[in-house]
Amino acid sequence: MPLLSGKSHKFKVAPPKIRIEKVAVENAPKPKPRSIARPGLSSSARSSPIRKLSPNATSSSIASSPAKSSSPYPSSTDERRFEPQRKRKAPTSASRRSPASDRIEFDKDSDAEDDNWMDLDSHKRQRKATSEDSNRTLRSARAYERKDEGLQFIHAVDVASLEHKCAPIMGASKEDVAVELQYPTLQRREKFQLVWGKDKIDTVEASIRIVRLVAGTYLTDAEAEPFTKHDNGIIRRLEKASNRNIQDLAGFKAALRDYNEKLLELVEAGVVSNNLENLHELPSELTDFILDQIYDRTVAPKVELLSKYENGTDFVYGELLHPFITKILVEQAKMTSDQVFVDLGSGVGNVVLQAALEVGCESWGCEMMENACNLAEAQEKEFHARCLLWGIEPGEVHIERGDFRKNALIHDALKRADVILVNNKAFTSQLNDDLIRMFLDLKPGCKIISLKSFVADSKSSHNINDVGSTILEVEECTYPEGFVSWTNAGGQYYISTRK
Ligand SMILES: C[S@@+](CC[C@H](N)C(=O)[O-])C[C@H]1O[C@@H](n2cnc3c(N)ncnc32)[C@H](O)[C@@H]1O
């Protein structure tokens, strides 16, 4: 029995005073859709022993690659349809564009050409301060207590290997392709193969990014030196070995082995765990990378399942990308780990997981499309395992199946919610009307972020919208290009505050 009837309801309300503020969102640096760095870590984070480097500022082409991955994305700029055409990812996928032999920007092997190493430092300096959530504990105690021998996760080799018809790279023979990577915890290493396949995980790129992320987030400058040293640090060795002109398989594998050993030593000595104690905010580059790892291993191999919907229905599928979520949850709503987030129509759970990881808050979602629910379940399982691998304690995650109008747990969560997301761009007007009725129960100050406004403009006299304008105060904002999956163009979104 629905908790809320879908039928229209006569509300007796005073004539609305509509207040719509237009707020232009500061133009983000032209987004490479998947990894717009959140501008800034707190000043205390900068002065903490944890050094923050940008893992993107590499002398390889990693950071400069265009959006590319295996998600439902558009290539079109036609906004009338939500079409799952464009690939969803960006920077992790430099080499997905082309085989390893085309990874052209790896070939700076001259020590004189080290512009990007300089960029690492300037990037670090450029970060602006944001308020840090000092109550958040990022460190997962469990990840450092002992190795969980039973920990199940999807290894890269399970989705990208010779068996998946990927081609070996760097001249690797069948016997040579296997490599392993240590994470900054006591947990098992992940198995990879040195192979390349279109839209598959690229081991060379992933390895270099993982080493950069570990060195940049989990270690002090001094501790990270063996990894980051300009001339012969491990990152430099990996880059040189994978350079298009060098292609030194033995050198690459030796550098990875040294990374694994050196990192495990630091983990076993308690260095990494201690550093994490002082970290209260996860850099968005790391958040994005972990979420991309999860998506690549669960959703990407089955992404076509998300395009099975009928246009003009409530099930039209499209995604808000990581930078958009960082913008609204962290920068605009300034969410903290003691708050509650709800995504109504949560698709494969991307935003629910991002809120739990990036903010550390209690995070809820509800989805009724069967295929999306199944993928969300797979993502949630992988999410918990990956958080353990990376040593991070996320917020609680609850993803419900079914119609959010009829789910009692969701209705309870809504009463406690601080921020609600409704990607309602393609919702029918009936569903948007039902949502307004659900918002009657929200606590004052709760923010609803939506792609369509719940308040009619002054020209409209539609009855239900009178309720919207009575209970909500609405700001209209603009998002820049690269923030959503169905078009590269920018657009409008709305932040409504429950009065
Ligand atoms: C555009 S997608 C948004 C996915 C995700 N929130 C995001 O922004 O990336 C909207 C989702 O809402 C779901 N949906 C529509 N009506 C719903 C309802 N009444 N209950 C649960 N989910 C619903 C659709 O199936 C679709 O997956």
Shape: globular
| Helix share, percent | 25-40%
**Which stretches of 5+ consecutive residues score pLDDT under 50?**
1-129
Span between termini: 29 Å
| Overall number of structural domains | 2
Number of helices: 15
Which H/E pattern describes the elements? EHHHEEEEHHHHHHHEHEHEHEHEHEE
**How much β-strand is present in the residues?**
5-15%
Assembly type of the chains comes to: single chain
Task: Give the biggest beta sheet.
Answer: 8 strands, mixed
- Tell me how many strands there are: 12
Strand order of the largest sheet: 1-11-12-10-9-6-7-8
Bound molecule types: S-adenosylmethionine
- Measured on Cα atoms, how large is the radius of gyration? 23 Å
**Class per helix and strand makeup:** alpha/beta
Mean pLDDT level: 79
Question: Could you explain the architecture of this structure?
Answer:
This protein is of the alpha/beta class and 499 residues long. The chain has two domains: 222 residues, Rossmann fold (3-Layer(aba) Sandwich), CATH 3.40.50.150; 235 residues, no CATH class. The chain has 15 helices and twelve strands. The strands form three sheets. The chain has an eight-stranded mixed beta sheet, with helices on both faces. Strand 9, helix 14 and strand 10 form a beta-alpha-beta unit. Helix 4 runs antiparallel to helix 5 and helix 9 packs antiparallel against helix 11. It is globular and about 70 Å long. The protein starts with 19 loop residues before the first strand and ends with a strand. The N terminus is likely disordered. The site of S-adenosylmethionine has 22 residues, from helix 11 and strand 7.
